[in-house]
Write the structure tokens for this entry.
Amino acid sequence: MALTKNPSILAWLEEKIALVQPDSVVWIDGSEAQLDALRAQALASGELLKLNDEKLPDCYLHRTAVNDVARVEHRTFICTPTEAQAGPTNNWKDPAEAYELLYNIARGSYKGRTAYVIPYSMGPVGSPLAKAGIELTDSIYVVLNMAIMTRIGQAVLDVLGDSNDWVRGLHCRCNIDEEQRYICQFPQDNTIISVNSGYGGNVLLGKKCFALRIASYQGKQEGWQAEHMLILGVENPQGEVRYICAAFPSACGKTNLAMLIPPEGYLKAGYKVWTVGDDIAWIRKGTDGRLWAINPENGFFGVAPGTNAHSNYNALASARQGTIFTNVALNLDDNTVWWEGLDKNPPAHAIDWKGNPWDGTTSSENGAHPNSRFTAPAKNCPCISSEFEAQQGVPISAFVFGGRRAKLAPLVYQSRTWNHGVFVGAIMASETTAAASGAVGVVRRDPMAMLPFCGYNMGDYWQHWIDIGASLDPDKAPKIFNVNWFRKSDAGKFLWPGFGDNLRVLDWILDRCAGKADADETSIGYIPKAADLNLTGLEDEVGDAQLAELLSVDPALWQTEVEGIETFFGKFGDKLPAALQAELDTLKANLA
Ligand code: GTP
Ligand code: SPV
Ligand code: MN
């Protein structure tokens, strides 16, 4: 029985059901009873494995196909009426051709299967910043993950009423054939179609497909922003909380920063960090003239490897209950999970992410895939913000961009102006990671960490950033910064300890926002004076010379960087905002 009378939903479903031809149709109402029944079904089919209920209550393990372990950027398409609308950084398909191709793949693909209709909300149900979607899927794994990552069920439909403002999402597992895998977004039609995958960002359509690719386009039309940003609050000893949004590329530290535990000195002084979001921010100007952000998600789809009690205690705590693990190793001794970097005791008696017997004490292979993940409910997080459900979101004091750069980018610098800040975001580049299929460790340009996620021409997206800035009273506009936790010495060692110690950098950033800290002006922007960074307790790890190296700006390296930026900007032709060309000219003049 349909859970809504919304005519646009019913018409769309009728058409899509006729296309995919399931044996039966199940509406997901959001009830625990229904989810429990689906879990039982997935256990029976082997799609999920139940983990140790004492150590990991209500937790499950899922293994995807070996050829289906990450986002596939080369098979992701923005299907806009013209290629120029998708821009030079997106793969493009003509919408009519894409629909035909995808419908041919989808046709009859649910035969012998059940169709699940998932009504979901990105953002707290009823929030003025939230938006609804419907995902049609033939995967219980998708239903159970969406139940953690988004708000699902009847309440979403009740708030939506008869509105046509919802995103259509069709997911078909098909045969997980990588040659026929397509992740297609149709921004003008509020539509997503994903075929031949069963993995995370390819199939949890509320996440990157909707909340970034479709939503970035919606934001352009409607005057708001969808960004690949974490949102965190820093509470000072006076009890004041100020919020920061930070954009880092995939697997470059958003979840870690969002949940950081302050260094000892800060803890003793009374500092606290509160997590609002770890991956995506929807941002809109409030009635007070400031920018306010919500996290459209309801859970964390976090990178497992490297997550441990020291690096990210709060993420680990979040993933101890009600969590679905994907592609980690299974410890057969106690039916728990393991991944590289969890601890120094890999299990000898285990099953690796591919499903093969694995002895972690002797094997040179990974037990967990480098992009293995946990899907954990946000409410489990010990440091979840009291404002997590706030309908209006939280007011933003600073935007922070950053990536993995072994050289070049200093630990932190501040832009001179809003438009310079947009330039700082636009010239971001980072070493690639396992979050997407392809080579790892290659530096590529990744503006605002949005390269794989911008649903329209990146030149127009930059102009949107500039327009947002122009609409803000300069006193109320967030200040814009760049950070780099990944700078290395010539010997290849990280120069900065990172993780909890990153709060020291956020502290300077917030002091700058409050007009309290000084800075040195350099060719690229404002750099902290060494004395203004609080390094108490880090003296042994980061000496004066090392700090000087971390904060140094090498003109020769930047000259080379400018050439790369010019080539990149050149791809945009007349879509490159004049303001960004002017910023590039300024940088060149400063370096000369
Ligand atoms: P997505 O979920 O793909 O968007 O990734 P993310 O940006 O949330 O990255 P995450 O926080 O999961 O971190 C990815 C990897 O970066 C992990 O292996 C971390 O251990 C490592 N990492 C995170 N923060 C730091 C840091 O401050 N310093 C260093 N050296 N590594 C870090
Ligand atoms: C990312 O790759 O940025 C992620 C994981 O957050 S996924 O949902 O697969 O996109
Ligand atoms: Mn991400």
